[in-house]
Amino acid sequence: MNTLLNSLRYIRWLAVTIFVGILLVVTFVVIVDPYSQYRFYEYPGFNTVKPALARYQNEIKLTQALQLKPNAFILGNSRAEIGFDPDAPNFNQHGLEAYNLAIPGIGVRTTHQQLSYLTQHGIEPKFILLGLEFLDFVVSPQFQQDSPPKPQHTAYQKKGIDDWFWKFDSLFSLASVKDSFRTLLIQNDDEAEIMTSRGFNPLQQYKKIARTEGYYKLFRQRAEENTKIYLTKAKGVISREDFDHLHTIFDIASRYNSEINLIIYPYHAQILALFEETNLWPIFTEWKSLLINEISVAKQHHPNLQIILHDFSGYNHYNCERIPPLGDRETSTKWYWEAGHFKKELGDIILEQIFRMRDSMSKIGGDIDGFQTPFGFKLNESTFLSNQLRIAAERSDCIHNYPELFAEVVSLTHTWTSTFLQSLQSMISRR
Description:
Layout: H1 2-32, E1 50-51, H2 57-68, E2 72-75, H3 78-83, H4 89-93, E3 98-100, H5 108-120, E4 127-132, E5 138-139, H6 164-171, H7 174-185, E6 194-195, H8 205-213, H9 215-233, E7 237-238, H10 240-255, E8 259-264, H11 269-277, H12 281-301, E9 306-311, E10 336-338, E11 341-342, H13 344-364, E12 377-378, H14 384-401, H15 403-430
Parallel strand pairs: 2-3, 2-4, 4-8, 8-9
Antiparallel strand pairs: 1-6, 5-7, 9-12, 10-11
Helix pairs in contact: 1-7, 5-10, 8-9, 9-11, 9-15, 10-12, 11-15, 14-15
């Protein structure tokens, strides 16, 4: 009898201990709120600075967007997430509340799903800034379909934002506790990996890498990674499926009278030179032409839809920014972290140009063909050739002022091409 009572007491004690432990963990995560899901308590120096998202990025960003109810969205991949700050003054000055929904590695398909989900839950986008990643549209020939199915206006996958598991896991898990402690530790660390309350990632952690290793290594490492990818992509074709998702985005925007600004990213000159050396440039040009055509078709279907395609690619003095030499740990770049990711400072200039064009169009009550700002180009059927001439002229200036950049790209491409061919020959001989 005593043994039974002792066992029952132990079980009750264990149950109470587990319950109290769970309660403490949940309370800790809710109060610290590392993912800005609950917003129960925020205090400067305690939990206002949040760590960058390492998991459930899409689910958490969509949840935050539903809470904040913005009317302007920044969409795209990591280039948009890092480059465009939703707290930039231009948004507020034009009566817009912005949120950055961009996520590293996503394509137009996910962007379509994001907009579909938010509009189905009562969010009405007034302004859309969508960064288009050229390389996402290029696929291997075997994946290209002659007649891919047109995507439908379906709700976001149930196993995503509406799934209960991620909500439970983000509340009660070791990873959430770890992120809560990270939140407490990064409040005064200006080199911590963070995300703002409106989805912007300022890439602060690169400051330490640049300070200790120098910008040259950041650019070089990314260039080597890009070269391998581009040599493979050059054998591909442009995907029709991504254009179908883009059409669906246009359809959604037309229902809410949204203004769409499509962005061709301001790739650093190093990337554009790699496009040339890896034979991606003709596909890049073709992609721009197809974008223009798709926009024209969309405007025929939706005559009142406002779509502007901005081309920020080229060899402008921003794009052609010098890379500090190897061993230089003192010189800092102003516009780029590395060739693929531009800094907020350049993103702010891009936003300024977009809103300048927007204001000019508003004043005259219509479109402005060939409207050109100091950085960027309004691209359509009538300006396609002049845009090509612009880029050619900029390239001439860039190669004159910075020939070593192009020479290094040629050397890098030849090195990786030789390595690739040797690996291929080795594989063939083993067979």
